[in-house]
Specification:
The chain is of the alpha/beta class. It is 39% helix and 19% strand. It folds into 2 domains: 8-72, Helicase, Ruva Protein, domain 3, CATH 1.10.8; 83-282, Rossmann fold, CATH 3.40.50.150. The protein contains 11 helices and 9 strands. Helix 7 (131-139) links the parallel strand 3 and strand 4 (144-149). Helix 2 (27-39) packs antiparallel against helix 4, helix 6 (104-113) packs parallel to helix 7 and helix 7 (131-139) packs parallel to helix 8.
Length: 285
C-alpha cells in the first residue's frame, strides 16, 4: 500500500487540529515550529514555502512523532532542543527550565545597573541553562561573569551555551546557593525556584515536565529566596546590587525581606505585562 501524499498545507492543518484537540492553546504556532524543525526551515521560511510541497515519508513520520510528544504535554523547546532568549538561541534539555520572556526582565534590570563599558564582576545564581549569564556576557563583554547552580546536569547545559554563544567566557561553579562561592561581586542576579509546592500540580502539563528542583520554592514559594537574600549581602561589595526574579504576587513580601536584611534603594522592574517581575536592592556604601 502506498501512502497518500501529504503536503505542507495538509500536514499543518492536521497538526493544528490535533494539538487543539489536546487542549494546547498555541496549536497553530506549535504546528509550524515543529514542522519547521523537521524541514530545517525557520518559521518565516516555512510560511513562505509552497503549500503544496510534499513531505517525504520519513519527514511525515518524524513530524507525527513530535506531535504525539507535544500532545502528551512535552514542551516545544524540549522537542527541538532550544529556545530563543534575548535574541540568542539557548540550548535546553530536561535538566533545565525553559527560559521565559519574563526572565528577560532580569537581564534588562541587570543591564540598567551595568554601564556599557562595565568591568564589573557578576554572579548569576540558579543559572539553569545559563541564559541570563550568557545574555549579560553578550551585552557587557567587559564584565567578569560567574554562574552557579545546584544541579550538575544543568551546568552541563549552561556550559554548552557558553561555549556556543560567548566562547566559554563564563566561569561556572557547582554550588547550593553560596556554599562554594568565594569573593565579592558588584552584582548578583537570581531566578530561583519560587512556586509554592502545593501549586506545582496545578501548572500546565508542559511546565510539569520541567525539573522540579528549579520550580519548587517550598510551602510559600520563598524558602530558598529567604536564604538567598539573607546570605547575599556577605558576597556583595559596598553599594553593590542584588536582583531577584519572582512572581508578581510575592513582591510585597520580598520588599519586606530586602528591608529586614538592610538593603537600600529597593526598587522593582516590570515585565511586558506591566507586572512587578524583578526586585533589587543595594548594600550599604
Amino acid at each position: 500500500m502506498t501512502r497518500q501524499a501529504v503536503t505542507i498545507r495538509k500536514a499543518l492543518y492536521e497538526a493544528a487540529r490535533d494539538l487543539h484537540s489536546a487542549g494546547i492553546e498555541t496549536s497553530v504556532l506549535d504546528a509550524q515550529v515543529l514542522l519547521g524543525e523537521v524541514l530545517h526551515k525557520n518559521r518565516t521560511a516555512l510560511i513562505a514555502s509552497e503549500p503544496f510541497e510534499q513531505l517525504s515519508l520519513e519527514q511525515y513520520k518524524r513530524y507525527r512523532s513530535l506531535l504525539e510528544l507535544r500532545c502528551s504535554g512535552e514542551c516545544v523547546a524540549y522537542l527541538i532542543g532550544r529556545r530563543e532568549f534575548w535574541g540568542l538561541d539557548i540550548q535546553v534539555g530536561q535538566a533545565v527550565l525553559v527560559p521565559r520572556p519574563e526572565t528577560e526582565t532580569l537581564v534588562e534590570a541587570a543591564l540598567s545597573l551595568l554601564v556599557p563599558d562595565s568591568k564589573s564582576t557578576v554572579l548569576d545564581l540558579c543559572t539553569g541553562s545559563g541564559a541570563v549569564a550568557v545574555a549579560l556576557k553578550h551585552e557587557r563583554p567587559g564584565c567578569t561573569i560567574y554562574a552557579s547552580d545546584i544541579s550538575k546536569d544543568a551546568l552541563v547545559v549552561a556550559q554548552e551555551n557558553a561555549r556556543l554563544l560567548c566562547e566559554n567566557a563564563i566561569t561556572f561553579i557547582h554550588s547550593d546557593l553560596f556554599e562554594h562561592i568565594t569573593g565579592s561581586f558588584d552584582l548578583i542576579t537570581a531566578n530561583p525556584p519560587y512556586i509554592p509546592t502545593d501549586l506545582i500540580k496545578l501548572l500546565p502539563p508542559e511546565v510539569q515536565h520541567e525539573p522540579i528542583i528549579a520550580l519548587d520554592g517550598g510551602l510559600d514559594g520563598l524558602s530558598l529566596i529567604r536564604k538567598l537574600i539573607a546570605q547575599a549581602a556577605a558576597y556583595l561589595a559596598p553599594g553593590a546590587s542584588l536582583l531577584i526574579e519572582a512572581d508578581p504576587s510575592q513582591m510585597p513580601k520580598l520588599k519586606q525581606l530586602f528591608a529586614l536584611n538592610a538593603y537600600q534603594d529597593i526598587r522593582f522592574w516590570h515585565d511586558l505585562s506591566a507586572r512587578q517581575r524583578v526586585i533589587g536592592g543595594n548594600t550599604k556604601q
